[in-house]
Queue: 4 jobs
Job 1
Amino acid sequence: MRNFNRFGCLLLAAFALSGCGPEQQATPSGPATDSTVAAKSEAQPKTYRIAFSQCNSAEPYRTVQNAIFKRNAARLGNEISLVIHDAQQDNAKQVAQIENIIQQGVDLLIVAPNESAPLTSVVKKAHDAGIKVICLERDLLEPVYDLL
């Protein structure tokens, strides 16, 4: 039941991200008007990009975890784009994958660290880059995340 609650929290975080941002923005000619707000509401909503750095997808528990993430992301339709990366229990591979994720500028990084020490600095780098971070299952050496 504890893992189910954790997944519920993750979905809550995804929904929270979708509600972020100002309702009205100023235009170069002045404050937002009813017509600029209406035009904005007709535009396509932002798709929030989530990257899940999984330490090892080969374990049955993690295979189920990945499936739950995929199913729940699919329920949100075009609002969420989810990519799952499998580090195959390789710290160097997981660090390299997170470096790539940082370059992509995702909105949310969910990380299940293979080991705490090797992953702390790269997760800190992601957090410092403005990416929201959720850390699963293992703590890092420093609290360089938004939710554990």
Job 2
Amino acid sequence: MSTAELIRAKKELRKRMRCLRDALDTSWKAQYDNKISTKLIEISQQTNAKVIHTYLPIGSEINIEPAI
């Protein structure tokens, strides 16, 4: 596969994953977002992490703001 084909495939995969995320039931997604945030907090405490790189969620990305 050429570089251009890989870039197109990656863009298409991102688009498909975004559509699937957007279609999730909002209450179900909120529950799992909270579970993920809780787990991130637990891991950071268990490992005594001093620095954690994170992101601010956009659209239907996993909402990790409680962990931030």
Job 3
Amino acid sequence: MSLTKVTRNFQVTIPAQIRKMLHIRVGSIVDFTVKGATVILKPKAMIDEDQTWFWTKEWQEGEAQVNEALKKKETLSFGNVEQMRKHLEPKKNRPHKTV
């Protein structure tokens, strides 16, 4: 447990070990929540509104799947966009090769 004193203007200093653990720096944004007689402080990141999609649960699950596939080398490479398009075309729409 770390103790700190409430100073003038009701300010408190976050102890160094806690700042390090939570990666809190000068200028960091923190959120306070009160539960009963307990105050919870959580660091928050500010995200531009047009970037919030990246942090949705669904997108992050997809990111995790991609990272896992990369680790397992379960990926494909293409020499150009046309090769990738051909690979992605439904098989029924692919031209048949005649022998």
Job 4
Amino acid sequence: MNTEFIRGLNNYTTSGTGGAVATIGTFDGIHIGHRAILEQVQQEAKKNSLTPVLITFHPHPSIVLNPQKAPLLLTTIEEKEQFIPDYFRGRVLILTFDEHLRNLTPEEFIKTVLVDKVKVKKLIVGSGHALGKNRSGDTQELERLGKKYGFELVVVGPVMQDGQPVSSSRIRQAMTEGNFDEAVELLGHHYAIFGTVMRGMSLGKKLGFPTANVNYNKQKLLPPDGVYACWTKVDGEDLDGMMFIGRNYFSTDTGKSVEANLFDFDKVVYDRDILVYPTHFVRENRKFQSTDELKIQMKKDKELVLNIIAKENVNVGRQRAKSSNYCR
């Protein structure tokens, strides 16, 4: 079975006659805790000859419910569409989280989405899950509704790491506190930044280090500023390189840029979609007195990155990015 993305409840049609095993959530990060749920959904669906269904939301509910305090995202909707097929085979229903959806009671949501449309026979959620207006549909309420509407509720316990449950908020905290390796370990896969290559000021090219300037989603949580070893995916090709995250002090633009210098690569990739995976933190961002000083430092950075590549043998087995953390 392949992964089928369906945008909007009106576009969802029942697949087969047996019904579905479903899960619901934002799945921000698609971390090791999420994947435990997704694995169980697929196992139960296969065992009972049902359709596996993942229901998620766009935009993130917090952006609608409390935009001033909404967290930056570990995984944008574009990235979810890139990565969910690595971990889930089935139907992915993307619901628009708007004023109508936010005001549905748990029972209204269950009836209109899960029962009438998805034909759910088994619902699998995490232990802290809640849905519906004011998150009033906790697992106790979902169990009651399951008995009323004829589906079974399965609650999956949290995945523990170092004595604490793995969660998207815990990963965000590690990332914002500068603990990049810890964040990646909790994710269980390399952190990716998706965007379209746009034209920049071409300073890197002038210095002998041409970069792909990534127009990333501004709701994306970026790793700490600095220089990283990285690998990228461009037009299906895997490439090693080094990347920069942060403010370019030689530019009048005060925003944060994401730029990747791809080794042994000289194709023009403007307006192409690109995935950049920072793997090893090399140094912090800092201000240089001249472009000549920056060029000297970039040569040192590249040497360090090439040593990392040689040591880690990162050219071999890109499947590692889907299965475990190789960033240490």
